[in-house]
Amino acid sequence: MVSLERPLPLSIVLRPAVPRDADLLRQWRAEPSVRRFQPLNELPTAQLRADVASQRIADLYRGRGEKFQWIVQVDGHPAGWITLVVSNWEHGLAEVGYALSSSYQGHGILTDALEILLDDLFHNTLLERVEARCAVENYGSQRVLEKNGFLREGRLKGYFKLRGRRVDNYLYGLLREDWLGRRRE
After folding, report:
1. Which site in 29, 102, 126, 164 is 20 to 30 Å from 38, CA atoms measured?
2. Lowest mean pLDDT among 9-23, 34-48, 91-105
3. d(Cα 88, Cα 91) in Å, to the nearest integer?
4. Helices 139-147/109-124 angle, 10° precision
5. Tens-place pLDDT, residues 75-99
6. How far is Cα 85 from Cα 93, in angstroms, rounded to an integer?
7. Is the dihedral angle over the CA atoms 153, 145, 98, 127 positive or is it negative?
8. Which pTM was predicted?
């Protein structure tokens, strides 16, 4: 297991997920700390591999495709993932989701990783608005979003079912113009 007890800053890099990452994705999705606030279904490695194999990051920059995944690497080690689902290219709408392996949580890694992705998306794609949802009890995810300029836009009552109970989520949104304006300040 990789220890993060070394001084910051850490080298954080995003790379497109590839089929060989399926085993990592399956392992991470099974971790209790990753599943704590997310209704992640247990998926076989073959299904995860096929899902990743169908994604073409180049399509994102051409304004097509629906789902894209990146692996978050910390000092060269895979630490988690970020997923982007484009719901409507005509309106430039997408939703982002993310998770880190337990041993990497609590170090500001996702804040930095999401910043890297958002900067790329808003400078190099047709996306105009990125949304995120997180459980109202997921304070860590709320901090990640708020540090990246997302605004909490509402509460989604009973948004999904988690371990047999309905869970409220917050809806967050970030516009390209707000991101780019924030960077000029």
Report:
1. 126
2. 34-48
3. 6
4. 40
5. 999 999 999 999 999 999 999 999 9
6. 9
7. positive
8. 0.89
